[in-house]
Design brief:
Layout: E1 20-23, E2 28-31, E3 34-35, H1 36-42, H2 45-53, H3 60-70, H4 78-86, H5 93-106, H6 116-141, H7 155-164, H8 170-183, H9 190-199, H10 205-216, H11 224-235, H12 241-249, H13 269-285, H14 289-308, H15 316-326, H16 334-355
Antiparallel strand pairs: 1-2, 2-3
The structure holds s-citryldethia Coenzyme A.
S-citryldethia Coenzyme A binds near residues 262 and 317.
């Protein structure tokens, strides 16, 4: 009997979850019952993280208590700062993030516990520290002193502050907050699946999150936002976008970064919101080049995919590239910023996994030879 193979686990349900729901046909993303389109415009990243980790949005008091639980953890231990100082300045920032997570685990005397209280303690610490890790590495690799966090600021605001030493404007903080909310959670995407698969052996949280960082870095996943901007920079102008796209589509296996999705068959709802943000930033800054080039790429891809009868649309990484560019972030920081948001979704899934665990161990169908007899090496 021939076995069914689900390469890439496409279409396979590995578990149930209460955290988020994606309707790929309608283009809907729901975090614990709330539509992302409402959350993105009305809830802060801290409110959404509380929602993802609990059953509902927090009350005023619950949110205040949650924020007070996060703020003391903004500070990085000195040994983590020292490790970030040792990182080669030209290394990919996701190597720095992944290494800092490992160092946090190495220096946490209670790292091993997977009881939910300990997992929650580590989750608070990592969610509060990811912005500090990314901002500190950015400062250090540019030969600048690390900036101590400001506990009076939100996660989004403190991240921007630790990059420059200047209190961010309310507008910049709001844009950052929207981007973090949109990138926080997305079901069993590759990095979240990896986090849960690693946690399913009952290893520690830091090992699971380190693995998730490695997965997110890939250009088919969280690395796509940087790949989009690298493509736009390589193309250089609106008039050259069409040739670039046609050249990729004419290459067997060619992929235009920022387009397509394993689940969405229509436009990613996050891309719709980020397109509006990019348009607003382009108008506000007067620098519409990257937004205009993105619109042209979307136009050409829509025309070509319609011709092919394929539903390949912009995903969350496509317009986030121009948003992050106009916010002034270096291109290789885009994926670490994705991680600053996704740590909240990863932790929500680790709470679920550790609370009702089953070791993840799929099978593979062997298609190799059988019945070979061993020959001594001088007879081979
Ligand atoms: C994220 O899973 C998540 O939820 C992830 C994410 C999250 O929030 O965690 O949403 C974030 O990772 C978004 C995706 C970012 N990645 C990219 O933008 C990289 C470019 N996209 C593709 O590599 C691709 O679309 C994937 C990886 C996203 C999805 O790939 P699938 O589901 O494995 O589909 P596939 O590669 O097998 O393609 C199916 C068909 C192919 O046609 P055929 O070869 O079968 O004729 O669609 C075509 C592909 O040619 N296609 C594309 C395309 N994506 C799919 N053609 C051109 N350009 C593309 N980008």
């Amino acid at each position: 009997m021939s076995e069914t193979i689900y390469q890439g686990l496409a279409g396979v349900n590995v578990d149930t979850t209460q955290i988020s729901h994606i309707d790929g046909l309608k283009g809907e993303l729901i975090y614990r019952g709330y539509d992302i389109r409402e959350l993105a415009n009305k809830a802060s990243f801290e409110e959404v993280t509380y929602l993802l980790w609990n059953d509902d949005l927090p009350t005023q008091d619950q949110l205040a208590e949650f924020k007070n639980g996060l703020k003391p953890h903004y500070i990085l231990p000195q040994e983590v700062i020292e490790v970030l100082k040792l990182m080669p300045k030209d290394t990919h920032p996701m190597h720095a993030v992944r290494t800092a997570v490992s160092m946090l685990g190495a220096t946490d005397s209670a790292a091993e516990g997977v009881d939910l209280d300990n997992v929650h303690r580590i989750g608070l610490s990592l969610t509060a520290k990811f912005p500090s890790i990314v901002a500190t590495f950015e400062r250090l690799r540019n030969g600048q002193e690390a900036i101590s966090p400001d506990p009076d600021l939100s996660i989004a605001g403190n991240f921007l502050y630790m990059l420059t030493g200047e209190k961010p404007t309310e507008a910049a903080t709001n844009v950052m907050d929207v981007a973090l909310v949109l990138h926080a959670e997305h079901g069993s995407n590759a990095s979240t699946f990896v986090a849960r698969a690693v946690a399913s052996t009952l290893t520690d949280v830091y090992s699971s999150i380190t693995a998730a960082c490695g997965s997110l870095k890939g250009p088919l996943h969280g690395g796509a936002n940087a790949a989009v901007m690298q493509a736009l920079e390589k193309i250089g102008s609106v008039s050259k976008v069409e040739d670039y796209v046609m050249n990729i589509l004419g290459t067997p296996g060619g992929r235009v970064m920022g387009f397509g999705h394993r689940v969405y068959r229509v436009l990613d709802p996050r891309a719709i919101i980020l397109k509006e943000v990019s348009h607003h930033l382009a108008e506000e800054s007067g620098d519409s080049k990257w937004f205009e080039m993105s619109l042209e790429m979307e136009r050409v891809m829509d025309r070509e995919m319609t011709k092919k009868g394929k539903e390949i649309k912009p995903n969350v990484d496509f317009f986030s590239a121009s948003v992050y560019r106009m916010l002034g972030f270096p291109t290789d920081m885009y994926t670490p910023i994705f991680a600053v948001a996704r740590i909240s979704g990863w932790m929500a899934h680790l709470y679920e996994q550790y609370a009702d665990n089953k070791l993840m161990r799929p099978r593979m169908v062997y298609e190799g030879p059988l019945g070979k007899s061993f020959k001594a090496i001088n007879n081979r």
